[in-house]
Amino acid sequence: MKKIKILEERCKGCGLCIEFCPKKVLGFSEKRNLQGYRVVGFYAKEKCNACGICFLMCPELVFVSEE
Ligand code: SF4
Ligand code: SF4
């Protein structure tokens, strides 16, 4: 299965990915990126099934897949 990587510096904190993740494995972390936005992180990465909805939803192309 593909692994999902989060490129935190691109995140603008809009929350769309959190809202639309069917597995509810995403949430805001305490960390802020250089632009000052709280970045998205995985809460339960083992439950992610790489469905790709977060790729489609994110306007900032934060999610990338690793082979
Ligand atoms: S790939 Fe699917 S399950 Fe995994 S974080 Fe993205 S939306 Fe959620
Ligand atoms: S959809 Fe993209 S920009 Fe918006 S919170 Fe999620 S990762 Fe960040």
Description:
15% of the residues lie in helices and 30% in strands. It is an alpha+beta fold and 67 residues long. It has a single domain (3-62), classed as Alpha-Beta Plaits. Strands 1-4 form a two-stranded antiparallel ribbon. A hairpin with a 5-residue loop joins strand 2 and strand 3 (38-42). It is globular, with a radius of gyration of 11 Å. The N and C termini lie close together (8 Å). The structure holds iron/sulfur cluster (SF4) (2 copies). One iron/sulfur cluster (SF4) binds at residues 11-17, 40, 57-58, 60, 62.
Summary keywords:
binds iron/sulfur cluster; 67 residues; alpha+beta; two-stranded antiparallel sheet; 15% helix; two-stranded antiparallel ribbon; Alpha-Beta Plaits
